[in-house]
Amino acid sequence: MNKRSPALTLVQHGLLALMCVIAVFPLYWMLISAFKNESEIFTASMFPHKPVLTNFTYAFDEMPIFRMMLNSFSIAIMTGVFQMATSLLAAYALVRWRFRGQGLIFSILSLTWLIPYQAVMVPNYSLVNSMGLNENIMGIVLPYAVSTFAILSLYQSFQSFPRVLIEAASIDGLSDFGILVKLILPNIKSMVASLGIILFLNGWSEYLWPMLITKEMENAPIEIGLRLFVNSDTNMWGSLMAAATAACIPILLIYILLQRQIVDSFVRYGMK
Amino acid sequence: MSHMEPTAVIPPLAGTASATHASVSRRALLMRRLKPYLYLLPAIVLLIIWMYRPLLYTCYLAFQKWGMVPGTEPTFVGFDNFTRLFRTDSFVHSIGNTVFYTVGLLPFSIVIPLILAVVTDGMKGKSKNFYRAIFFIPMILAPVSVGAIWRWLFHPSNGLVNNLLLKLNVVDRPIAFFSDAQWAKWIILFITGWKMIGFAVLMFSSALTGINREYYEAASIDGAGKFRVFIRITAPLVSPMVLFMLTMSILFASQWTFAYIDMLTAGGPYGSSTNVYYEMYKNAFANMNVGFSSAAALVFFVVFGLIALGLNALSRKLSFYDN
C-alpha cells in the first residue's frame, strides 16, 4: 500500500508517538523521581538538575531489597519449573494416548480456568497455615505448582509434533519417557522456552496470594515488599520511586535482552 | 486420524512375548493402561489439593458463619449468607462497579488496540516492531510497581498531573484523585486499561499478519476503497480475535483491577471504587466474615461461568474463519 499520502503518514506517526509517550512516560517519571533531591522532587522538572543517590541509599536501608529480589527470583523460578514439569507430563499423556476419562480430564482443566482465586483463597490459606508454611516461600510456590494454562498451551504445541515420528521412535524401542525427553522436547524447545518466559513473568507479578502469605519484608517477594513500603511511608516519594526502580530493573533487563522472544511468547500463548 | 491406541491393542513390542510369559505381559499391559494416568497424576493431584478441594470447602463455608479465628468452629447458618449478599448495600454497589470496570475496559482491550494494530500493520517491519515493543512495556511490569508509579503521578497535592493541571489553569485546586468518589474508579479503570493496551495490540497485530495479502490485492484491483476493505475483509477475518479478547476482557477485567483497587483506594471512598472480588477479599481477611465472602465467591463463579459459556457459544456461531 504505497498510495498513502505523506500527511496521513505524518498523522499516523504522530498518533503512535503519542501512544508511545503514554506507555513509557510513567517509567521515565519513576526513574527521574528516584534521582531528584528533596527540593526538586515536588516540582514538575523533567530532568533531575542535581541528581542524588540518597533516595536509593534510604530505600536500601529501609528495605531488604536484595533479599526480597532473591525471594522474587526463587518464587518465579520455582513456580515456573514446577508448572513446566507437571504440565509437560500431563500434556504429553493427553497427546500421546487415548484413554478412558480423557474427556473428563479436559473438562476439569478447562473449568479450572474459570475458578477465581478468591473462591479458593480462604481454604488454601488455612491449609498453608496448618502446614506451617506461612511467611515461607514454599507457601507461595506450592499452590502454584500446577497451571492449567501451561498444560493446555503445551498440549497445543505437542499436537503440532508429527505423530509418525513418535510411532517410529516407539517401534525403535525408545521408552515413552524417552520419547518425551529425547525426541519431542529438543524439537519444540523454542516453544517450551516461550512458555517458560510467561510462567516466570506470571510468578514474578503474582499479587493476591503472596500478599496473603507474607507480611514481613524479609520473607516477601520484592513486589509485596514494595506494597508494604508504599502503604507505610507515603511521603518519601523519592525513595519510593527508587525502590520501584529497583523492583522494575530485573524485568526490564530481561525484556531488553529477550524482547523478541517475550513478544513472540505472548503472541503464541496469550496470557493466563 | 492416525492415533495409535496402545491401550486398546497390544503394541508391536509386547507381541514378541510368548505365551509362557503371560503373567509378565499381563503386567506390562496393565502398566500400559495405567501409564497415561501416571503421567497425569502430579498435575491432577495438585489441582485437586489446591483448586477443587478448596472450591468444595468454599461451598461448605458459604453456608457457615466463621471468622477464621484458630480454635473456633464454623456454625451452620443456612442460606443466610446468600440472602445477606443482596441486602448489603456495599456489596450491591460493588456489583455496579464490576459492570462499570468490565464495560469500561472494552475500549482499552478492543477499540484502541484494534486501531493501533491496523495503523501499524501497514508500516515497514522496523517501525512496526519498534512501536509494538514500546506499547508492550506496561504489560510486563508487575502490578505493584505500576500502582506505585501512578500513585505518585496522581498524588493529590504534589503529583505531576495535579501540578500540570494547576499550571495550565485547568483547575484551581488540586484534585484528590483517589479520595474523590467521582474520580477514584476512573483512575483505576485508566491504569488497568493502560496496562492492557500493549498486549491487545500484539494479539490483533498477529491476527492481522495472518490475513492473506492476496485478498487485499484482489480488493485493490477491484477498486475497493480503504473503508470498504476494512469492513469486508479485515473486520471479518480478525473477528475470532476480537471475540477472544472480548472473552478475556469480560472474564478477567475484575481480576485485573484488583491490585490497583487494593493499592490505590482500598475500595474507597465509601466503596465507590471497589469490585466484587475486592469485597470477597475484604470480607474474608479484614472483616473476618468468611461465610459472606464464600457465598459471594460461589455466586460469581457461577455468574462468570455462565458468561463464559455464552461467549463460547457466541464465538462458535459468529466467527468467520479463513478457510
Query: How much beta of chain B, percentage-wise?
Result: under 5%
Let me know the CATH homologous superfamily of the largest domain in chain A.
Answer: MetI-like
Chain-averaged pLDDT of chain B: 86
**Which residue ranges of chain B are poorly predicted, with pLDDT under 50 across at least 5 consecutive positions?**
1-19
Helix content of chain A: over 70%
Mean model confidence by pLDDT of chain A: 91
What is the CATH topology descriptor of the largest domain in chain A? MetI-like fold
Coarse structural class of chain A: mainly alpha
Low-confidence stretches of chain A: none
CATH architecture of the largest domain in chain A: Orthogonal Bundle
Number of strands of chain A: 0
In DSSP terms, counting alpha (H) and pi (I) runs of 4 or more, how many helices of chain A? 13
Using the CA coordinates, give the radius of gyration of chain A.
23 Å
Number of domains of chain A: 2
Biggest contact: A-B, 94 and 98 residues
Tally of structural domains of chain B: 2
CATH homolog superfamily of the largest domain in chain B: MetI-like
CATH class of the largest domain in chain A: Mainly Alpha
> How much helix, percentage-wise, in residues of chain B?
over 70%
Structure description:
- The complex is a heterodimer of chains A (272) and B (323).
- Chain A has 272 residues and is mostly helical.
- Chain A has 2 domains: 1-52, no CATH class; 62-269, MetI-like (MetI-like fold, Orthogonal Bundle), CATH 1.10.3720.10.
- Helix content of chain A is 72%, strand content 0%.
- Chain A has 13 helices and no strands.
- Chain A has helices at 6-35, 54-62, 65-96, 102-112, 121-130, 137-141, 148-159, 163-171, 176-187, 189-205, 208-213, 222-232, 237-269.
- In chain A, α3 crosses α7 (148-159), α10 packs antiparallel against α13 (237-269) and α12 runs antiparallel to α13 (237-269).
- The two termini of chain A are 36 Å apart.
- The mean pLDDT of chain A is 91.
- By secondary structure, chain B is mainly α.
- Chain B has 2 domains: 30-76, no CATH class; 80-318, MetI-like fold (Orthogonal Bundle).
- Helices cover 71% and strands 1% of the residues of chain B.
- Chain B is built from 11 helices and 2 strands, in the order αββαααααααααα.
- The two termini of chain B are 20 Å apart.
- In chain B, 38% of the residues are buried.
- The model of chain B is unreliable at 1-19 (pLDDT under 50).
- At the A-B interface, α1, α3, α4, α5 and α8 of A face α1, α3, α4, α5 and α6 of B.
- Chain A: It is found in: Cell membrane.
- Chain A: Its main location: membrane.
- Chain A: It holds the Pfam family BPD_transp_1.
- Chain A: The chain crosses the membrane at residues 7-29, 73-95, 104-125, 137-158, 179-201, 236-258.
